[in-house]
């Protein structure tokens, strides 16, 4: 980043919107810094920051704003800000949010709840019966264009202002409104039906009198709900009981966090041990739950049973929760509801869809305002030239209505039909099969994108892991040498069977020696491989699941120890696909995980022998610790071993000294592999007992529980023996690398927003070439307060041209204190990776980019956790993947593969924008040319407010005579699709918006004035006897001129364009026979009429053809150089 960027928070014109306010349930308290540091300049050195706290320049933002707020500010948009803030204030008062609080929930007693909690109903509708019509009309008439047409159409009810027939004004407006209302009504009915289906799903509720069926929407806090296998969990619950013998079950969370892997959830021990389900009502117990929060990865609470002596207290964590919108994958579960409706984690993390309006529509809206201004000025000039005689005010309004064709109503009709045509073309494109256009109003946005925000899992990657490398320090094994590992394993276990009771002799015993005598004893490669594979086979959270062959009830049953563990019907389930792949790999080399429950784990050796291990403790992976551990006791020998695996950054300080780990991790990361360091430590019985007592004590503490538990575990993590380093590859989606390169060359900046771990995200960023090989990566250190954020931003500012990797927590801190500075720096990065992002945070990042850069954003994802981001972006693209259809249903465009985005943007996005820009300007030209002729006519005939063309001539001009050729511009293209994909740089030009700007608009205005003047004056000069000849000559010349202008505008001819041109000309010539009300038929069939029309048309069009030829010869546009 250039050091010259002034990073001072005090700016006059910045639109600073504090996104991370208290209402957003921020994870950090605002009070962690003195409030008078609100405007700390971000230019100080570290020394200045540490020593010179008194020297901060504090300039409160309010004072700067006050200085700006004068009359000028009020007139230039301040009134809108004031009105908006008043409306926001009123809305806030009307729906003041109830403060979210922690709660005590008694099992099966909803009536004991101290407060009234929200109804458990899902509501995604935008309107209700009362608000539908006003809401849709407001969305339509908030655009100046539509409001203008409404006023003009209403004016025709006033007799003194009436210019033409009522239908010429009301029919087009009514058509536009009817189409919009029908479209909105259909969408609304679909949303209502979806909500109704979800809310009326039936669940079994446990009561004192037994089971009863209740609707999802009738579930209350405190209810005991039974959820069957493959059923959606209706509300946030604490997991009390399961039908599984292990006391645990799996749930699928793909619609909540976007991860396809199953998560293991554990039932509360006290309730799981009860003999029968009905006993839940014979105990007096309650759950204390923290207040509802956004964070889906954490939960703190306690379970208390009062009627036991002594009272039973159990700590509750995230593994005891069942969040709404997840699905039970194994067994039947019973839970007590703690949060419903708006307070559930899934709803708190969902943002509501907004009505998206394309940038092109906004630009055309601005141009119509300019045209309206011109129209009013022209009308005032006409009245002034009359000398303000008589009822001049009425004449002024008549002139405004006369010139109303400057802004044609057909503009909206043509553009809306054009959008539908682009959507149809996208869906019919055979190169991107399965693409669906769900929002037909914004196809042009695909051609204006500057930022692409993409999810990682399932979008860039397939979420399918492949084990690639095992490194033991002195020797490394790749995919081609795995058979060597297999032979070593077979050999080591074959030795073990010849000496009974020493099946782990080569595993546990040497490790004790190693611990006492240090690294003096060199182990054989075979024993080191054996230890490493055994550690990988034991240190994980994977459960083997066996589908029963009977398959009648479809239940999944865990195999018992004495069962025959057949390999055919075994599948592995875990919360991380990496772990599943590691266990699959140990199976492939001979050591198979065959059974696991909460307390034990069994492995099968190549010879078929079963090794049993007792699980003493499990330390799950967290984003803070970046490692997971397990303590097991081998049943045959009684040895206790602590195994641990984790990221190299976390493990480097835990394992004994070595000289190869860092270098090898770097090598694997450069290959795009996800690395894990595996280590172990043997424990004596006394060491373990001491640890267990301290650990259980820490787990029950109410304050700083997480810190105390971590401190106890860390006491074990010292001087561990490094066993191996593993490398797993997450396979990328097809053609991700070329697609990302294509987008980069097109000038699109790509940000990756993922809920995954920092190391994984960095890894994929490198392997997908999101970050090029020669680029540096700046990993933003974790920051928790203002001071740390300040220092880290200063460090980042000194880096040049490097990609940024930042975690969601650090991002939140930076945005609270240095929103503008952070976004300014991040936008200069070639790529940005945000990891550990919550769904809400993804949406906030999108909104932030929109506010600070004013560029168009596109979000692409495939899971339920991407919906908020997709809806917040200017253009949302959903991928139909393994994670269900939630993202693709919420998106504006749905594709089947990530690589399709290249063609969608480069070909369809580019064409849609260029075609709509040409179509919009041509329709305006068509209105301006006739208004110019009206102005010339009125000025010649003593400034009379009399229409030049009446009735059907005006309707025919805008519809049957010119509509088809003008609309055929939606088939125009400047370069072939292959060329657009070969030269993505063509796309970069579009982001500057040159196809539709005030400059191009002004050129069309000049053309319209020139042609309108020539046609009218020509007709007035050349007509001889009757006035009716003026109408015939000028109108015929006008129609032919328009058809020739369409031909001049077209860059690539399509056969339908030729048909449209000749069809329109034929329609006009055929209708002449019936238009004797307006034309003199005897005059039309004479030679003078033909030569007069021909000469006027020639003078109006020939100069433009000459100018176009010269321009293409001496200053050709970039696309014409390519096509030639």
TrEMBL record:
Residues annotated as binding ATP: 455-457, 579, 621, 645, 674, 754-756, 836, 842, 865-866
Pfam family, one: E1-E2_ATPase
EC number: 7.6.2.1
TM segment ranges: 167-186, 370-390, 396-415, 923-945, 951-971, 1001-1021, 1027-1048, 1055-1075, 1087-1107
Keyword NAD: no
Domain P-type ATPase C-terminal stretches: 889-1116
UniProt keywords, alphabetically: ATP-binding, Golgi apparatus, Lipid transport, Magnesium, Membrane, Metal-binding, Nucleotide-binding, Translocase, Transmembrane, Transmembrane helix, Transport
Residues where Mg(2+) binds: 455, 457, 862, 866
BP terms from Gene Ontology: endocytosis; phospholipid translocation; retrograde vesicle-mediated transport, Golgi to endoplasmic reticulum
Location of this chain's protein in the cell: Golgi apparatus, trans-Golgi network membrane; Membrane
PANTHER family given in the database record: PHOSPHOLIPID-TRANSPORTING ATPASE IIB-RELATED (PTHR24092:SF50), PROBABLE PHOSPHOLIPID-TRANSPORTING ATPASE (PTHR24092)
Protein name per the record: Phospholipid-transporting ATPase
């Amino acid at each position: 980043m250039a050091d010259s960027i002034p990073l001072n928070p005090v700016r006059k014109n910045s639109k600073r919107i504090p996104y991370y306010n208290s209402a957003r349930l921020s994870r950090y308290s605002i009070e962690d810094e003195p409030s008078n540091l609100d405007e700390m300049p971000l230019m100080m050195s570290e020394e200045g920051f540490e020593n010179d706290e008194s020297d901060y320049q504090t300039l409160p933002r309010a004072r700067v704003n006050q200085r700006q707020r004068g009359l000028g500010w009020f007139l230039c948009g301040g009134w809108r800000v004031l009105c908006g803030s008043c409306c926001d204030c009123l809305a806030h008062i009307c729906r003041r949010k109830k403060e979210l609080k922690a709660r005590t929930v008694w099992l099966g007693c909803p009536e004991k709840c101290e407060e009234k909690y929200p109804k458990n109903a899902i509501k995604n509708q935008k309107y209700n019966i009362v608000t539908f019509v006003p809401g849709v009309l407001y969305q339509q008439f908030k655009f100046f264009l539509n409001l203008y047409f409404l006023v003009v159409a209403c004016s025709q009810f006033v007799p003194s202002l009436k210019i033409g027939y009522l239908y010429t004004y009301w029919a087009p407006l009514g058509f536009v409104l009817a189409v919009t209302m029908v479209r909105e009504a259909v969408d609304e009915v679909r949303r209502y039906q979806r909500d109704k289906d979800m809310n009326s799903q039936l669940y079994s509720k446990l009561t004192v009198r037994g089971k009863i069926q209740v609707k999802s929407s009738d579930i209350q806090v405190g209810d005991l709900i039974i959820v069957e296998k493959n059923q959606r969990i209706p509300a946030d619950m604490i997991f009390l009981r399961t039908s599984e013998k292990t006391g645990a079950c799996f749930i699928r969370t793909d619609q909540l966090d976007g991860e396809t892997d199953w998560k293991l959830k554990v039932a509360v021990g006290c309730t799981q041990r009860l003999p029968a389900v009905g006993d839940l009502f014979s105990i007096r117990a309650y759950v204390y739950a923290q207040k509802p929060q956004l964070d889906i990865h954490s939960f703190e609470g306690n379970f208390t049973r009062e009627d036991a002596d002594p009272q039973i207290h159990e700590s509750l964590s995230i593994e005891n929760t069942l969040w709404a919108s997840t699905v039970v994958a194994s067994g039947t579960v019973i839970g007590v509801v703690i949060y419903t409706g708006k307070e559930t984690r899934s709803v708190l993390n969902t943002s509501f869809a907004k009505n998206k309006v394309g940038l092109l529509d906004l630009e055309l809206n601005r141009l119509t305002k300019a045209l309206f201004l011109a129209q009013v000025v022209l009308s005032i000039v006409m009245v002034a030239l009359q000398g303000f005689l008589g009822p001049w005010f009425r004449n002024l309004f008549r002139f405004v209505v006369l010139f109303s064709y400057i802004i044609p109503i057909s503009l909206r009709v043509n553009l809306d039909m054009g959008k539908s045509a682009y959507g149809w073309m996208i869906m019919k494109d055979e190169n991107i099969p399965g693409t669906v256009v769900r929002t037909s109003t914004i196809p042009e946005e695909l051609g204006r994108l500057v930022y692409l925000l993409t999810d990682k899992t399932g979008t860039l990657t397939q979420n399918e892991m492949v084990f690639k490398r095992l490194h033991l320090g002195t020797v490394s094994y790749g995919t081609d040498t795995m058979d060597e590992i297999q032979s070593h394993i077979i050999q080591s276990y074959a030795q073990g069977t010849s000496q009974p009771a020493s099946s782990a002799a080569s595993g546990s015993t040497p490790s004790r020696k190693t611990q006492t005598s240090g690294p003096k004893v060199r182990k054989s490669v075979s024993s080191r491989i054996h230890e490493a594979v055994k550690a990988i086979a034991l240190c994980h959270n994977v459960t083997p699941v066996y589908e029963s062959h009977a398959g009648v009830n479809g239940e999944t049953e865990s195999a018992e120890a004495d069962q025959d563990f057949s390999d055919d019907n075994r599948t592995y389930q875990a919360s991380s696909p990496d772990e599943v792949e590691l266990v699959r790999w140990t199976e492939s080399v001979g050591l198979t995980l065959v059974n696991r429950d909460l307390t034990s784990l069994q492995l099968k050796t190549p010879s078929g022998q079963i090794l049993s291990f007792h699980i003493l403790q499990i330390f799950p992976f967290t984003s803070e610790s970046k490692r997971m551990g397990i303590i097991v006791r081998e049943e045959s020998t009684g040895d206790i071993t602590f195994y641990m695996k984790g990221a190299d950054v976390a493990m480097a300080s835990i394992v004994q000294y070595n000289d190869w780990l860092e270098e090898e991790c770097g090598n694997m990361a450069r290959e795009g592999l996800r690395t894990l360091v595996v280590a172990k430590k043997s424990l004596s019985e006394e060491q373990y007992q001491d640890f267990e007592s301290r650990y259980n004590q820490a787990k029950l503490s109410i304050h700083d529980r997480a810190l105390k538990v971590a401190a106890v575990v860390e006491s074990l993590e010292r001087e561990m023996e490094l066993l191996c380093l593993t490398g797993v590859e997450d396979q990328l989606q097809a053609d991700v690398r070329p697609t990302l390169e294509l987008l980069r060359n097109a000038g699109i900046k790509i940000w990756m927003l993922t809920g995954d771990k920092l190391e994984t995200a960095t890894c994929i960023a490198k392997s997908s070439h999101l970050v090029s090989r020669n680029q540096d990566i700046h990993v933003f250190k974790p920051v928790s307060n203002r001071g740390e954020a300040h220092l880290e931003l200063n460090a980042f500012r000194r880096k040049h041209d490097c990609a940024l990797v930042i975690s969601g927590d650090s991002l939140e801190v930076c945005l609270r204190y240095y929103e503008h500075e952070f976004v300014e720096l991040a936008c200069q990065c070639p790529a940005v990776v945000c990891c550990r992002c919550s769904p809400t945070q993804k949406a906030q990042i999108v909104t932030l980019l929109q506010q600070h850069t004013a560029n168009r954003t596109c979000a692409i994802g495939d899971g339920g956790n991407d919906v908020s981001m997709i809806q917040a972006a200017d253009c949302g693209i959903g991928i139909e993947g393994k994670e269900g259809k939630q993202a693709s249903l919420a998106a504006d465009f749905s594709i089947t593969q990530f690589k399709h985005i290249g063609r969608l943007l480069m070909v369809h996005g580019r064409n849609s924008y260029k075609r709509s820009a040409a179509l919009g300007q041509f329709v305006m030209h068509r209105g301006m040319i006739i208004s110019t002729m009206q102005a010339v006519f009125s000025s010649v005939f003593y400034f009379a407010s009399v229409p030049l063309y009446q009735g059907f001539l005006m309707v025919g001009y805008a519809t049957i005579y010119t509509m088809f050729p003008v609309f055929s511009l939606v088939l125009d293209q400047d370069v072939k699709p292959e060329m657009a994909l070969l030269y993505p740089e063509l796309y970069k030009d579009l982001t500057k918006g040159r196809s539709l700007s005030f400059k191009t608009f002004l050129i069309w205005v000049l053309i319209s004035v020139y042609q309108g003047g020539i046609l009218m004056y020509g007709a007035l000069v050349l007509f001889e006897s009757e006035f009716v000849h003026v109408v015939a000559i000028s109108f015929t010349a006008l129609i032919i001129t328009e058809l020739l202008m369409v031909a001049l505008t077209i860059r690539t001819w399509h056969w339908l364009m030729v048909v449209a041109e000749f069809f329109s000309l034929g329609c006009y010539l055929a209708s002449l026979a019936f238009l004797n009300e307006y034309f003199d038929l005897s005059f039309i069939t004479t030679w003078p009429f033909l030569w007069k029309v021909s000469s006027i048309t020639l003078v109006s069009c020939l100069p433009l053809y000459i100018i176009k030829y010269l321009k293409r010869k001496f200053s050709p546009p970039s696309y014409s150089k390519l096509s030639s």
